[in-house]
Design a protein that fits this description.
single chain; 237 residues; alpha/beta; Rossmann fold; five-stranded parallel β-sheet; 9 helices; 12% strand; globular; binds thymidine-5'-diphosphate
Length: 237
Amino acid sequence: MAVSSAPGFFVSFEGGDGVGKSTHARLLGEWLGAVTGREVVVTREPGGTEFGREVRRLVLHGDHVDPRAEALLYAADRAHHVATLVRPALERGAVVVTDRYLDSSVAYQAGGRELAEDEVEQLSLWATRGLLPDVTILLDLDPVVAEARRTGEPDRLERAGDGFHRRTREAFLRRAAADPGRWVVIDAGGEVSDIQAQIRVDVAARLDLTPVVEEAVRVVDADSLPGASPASPEGLS
Ligand code: TYD
């Protein structure tokens, strides 16, 4: 399969702390690269750029930050991330998979910190010049279960308390229900391999990749028949 020159695909992972977003973002990125032949950029917020790593340190590892200052810091990270990394990659035709994006601000700073939802959303839309993902995967898990899975010292947001994390989860679920065309909701309580398989099926359908995936599987199967020529590196021709 030839590398497509069409514009890229933008996929975001959302959910509470400790639900496995970074693992699934990496696994999905590797798979999308193999089946589409496209460049893949796996990134995250906050901290996907050098500037963002400074913001991340301020917002997660400093002392108290006023909620509006917190919202502005995440938006500043996002503005720079989109302008310097995400949008240029999408314009090159890459697949961009980000661990958190704008919906985290709405869930944490509006849901969790109880700022106005439309204001937080507008701030991020302004910061990103309106860039929304093609698909957003919500890995949904009870925050009490997620907290029990966590290892290491909690950061400033992880210490925000049960009510905060419950409101954040509810905000994610509300947003997903309001825009089912963009969102896929997955129960993050199972095995990594089962969750990843479900993510791949849903993302392939949303990005119209199902025929590409079927072709990739067909080529790999044919190559494994006796006497067949070896598959190309990605199992694709
Ligand atoms: P990180 O370690 O990346 O999260 P995770 O626990 O998912 O690996 O930390 C990011 C923290 O910042 C997380 O608690 C969510 C929070 N956050 C916001 O509050 N607003 C935002 O816009 C973003 C992107 C993250």
